[in-house]
Amino acid sequence: MSGKLGGDTLDKLVIEGGNPLSGTIPIHGAKNAALPILAASLLANGEVQIHNVPHLLDIKVMLGILERLGCSTCHEQDTVFVDSSNLLSTDIPEDLMKQMRSSIFLMGPLLVRCGEVSFYQPGGCAIGERKFDLHLEGLKALGADIEESYEKMTCQARKLIGTDIHLDFPSVGATENIMMAAVLAEGRTTIINAAREPEIQDLQNFLNAMGASIIGAGTDTITITGVDRLYPCSYEIIPDRIVAGTIMIAAAATRGSVTLSRCCPSHLSSLIHVLRRAGVQISVSNDIMNVSCMVRPKAVDRIVTSPYPFFPTDLQSQVMVLLSLADGFSVMKETVFESRFKHVDELNVMGADISVDMNAAFIRGVPRLYGATVEATDLRAGAALVIAGLAAKGRTTVEQVHHIDRGYDRIESLFQHLGARMHRQSPVAEQLDFAN
Ligand code: UD1
């Protein structure tokens, strides 16, 4: 795989709003679990099989990087095969690194498997400064030397030695990178103030399935006892809680009734709590959830994003759409990323009444949103605009859809399946139509 892996920046979504969503939809595998697990597949010398992997742009980029490093990869239906037996490079390619922040997940695995890794400043959604100092400090604590020359960084270690690592902030990515490096380190590593997201438990389960010895994921203390080697395994990724949450919010915002299957309701308790406060009806039975909202939602006075198990930053923009249609005045505070209110201007173009002061958004509910042409500025902001378009009166065009393709497997098909009137306008498809 080579060249540009990104989606077409000219694709648009055209949505005829005002149709309540209804029907049943299964939830695809979690992007944020699949990405570190794909990186960790390098730790076993042989073919790893990973099931329930969604077809997303970020997954394509990760597989593209693995191929450039010498692995063979294949994504057939929902299963990915990664064979790293012929790994030949420890240099993460700059062009792909710039396309996706999650490329930094390869630092830990490459360092511990090969003794070195070179990388560049990663790209990703423009939602804040997005430092990676905690990743580097963690690897240094395990014994790595890091040198920087111009934009390129090289990290080397003849041997990693387990130690206690205290994270100043429970960073999801840093917790995962340290876990992946520590599995083959000598001795025991303890991560204190670790992130507790379900995706970290999924990584622990995957690494343990390959023969690692990790306990504690899901709590704030994770203990990793180094082993000599890891073995290929077959593993299934958990359902995507952010995709599930996006659909739940869309169901409520369009005053519809949607059943989600193959989801994990316990991963969504903070969202369920907020939606119930807004008057949304939710019933849960094992891995099935029904969400319906027949009346105007109520305002929710104070929602604060915070690391798991608190309200996820990745659902902040989508919930803001629901609150912009609610009866009353709501306040949302963003504490995880600095610049995560870029959707606000676009929602206001659609008739919302939202103002921002520092990291707080003040939302005065309006009875209706109106279709407009708006731009997805990042992945979750884009998902929020799709929800707004589905709920709005008239036609909405969402531009810069490649951001949305990073985290949702053909979002238009997903919502069409629930009765939405929306389609993708792709210049490439239009040219082909014209040729015919
Ligand atoms: C992961 C998720 C992303 C989600 C975020 C927070 C993946 C692939 N992505 O991103 O969807 O929005 O968790 O739930 O799993 N920070 C530092 N130094 C570091 C690392 C992070 O200061 O070394 C800061 C970041 O700038 C940010 C905050 O910590 O303000 C949260 O970042 P982190 O938890 O690391 O998120 P990601 O792993 O990047």
Gist of the model:
Helix content is 32%, strand content 24%. The chain has 436 residues and is of the alpha+beta class. Residues 32, 35, 101-102, 128-135, 169, 171-174, 195, 199, 313-314, 336-337 line the site of uridine-diphosphate-N-acetylglucosamine.
Descriptive tags:
single chain; 436 residues; alpha+beta; UDP-n-acetylglucosamine1-carboxyvinyl-transferase, Chain; 2 domains; four-stranded mixed beta sheet; 15 helices; disordered C terminus; binds uridine-diphosphate-N-acetylglucosamine; UDP-N-acetylglucosamine 1-carboxyvinyltransferase activity; EC 2.5.1.7; transferase
Structure description:
Its main location: cytoplasm. It catalyses: phosphoenolpyruvate + UDP-N-acetyl-alpha-D-glucosamine = UDP-N-acetyl-3-O-(1-carboxyvinyl)-alpha-D-glucosamine + phosphate. With 436 residues, this protein is α+β, with helices and mostly antiparallel strands. The chain has 2 domains: 214 residues, Enolpyruvate transferase domain (UDP-n-acetylglucosamine1-carboxyvinyl-transferase, Chain, Alpha-beta prism), CATH 3.65.10; 206 residues, UDP-n-acetylglucosamine1-carboxyvinyl-transferase, Chain (Alpha-beta prism). Helix 1 runs parallel beside helix 7 and helix 4 runs parallel beside helix 6. Helix 10 links the parallel strand 17 and strand 18. The chain is built from 15 helices and 23 strands. Strands 21-22-1-23 form a 4-stranded mixed β-sheet. It has a 4-stranded mixed β-sheet with strand order 2-14-16-15, covered by helices on one side. The structure holds uridine-diphosphate-N-acetylglucosamine. The site of uridine-diphosphate-N-acetylglucosamine (UD1) has 23 residues, from helix 1, helix 5 and helix 6.
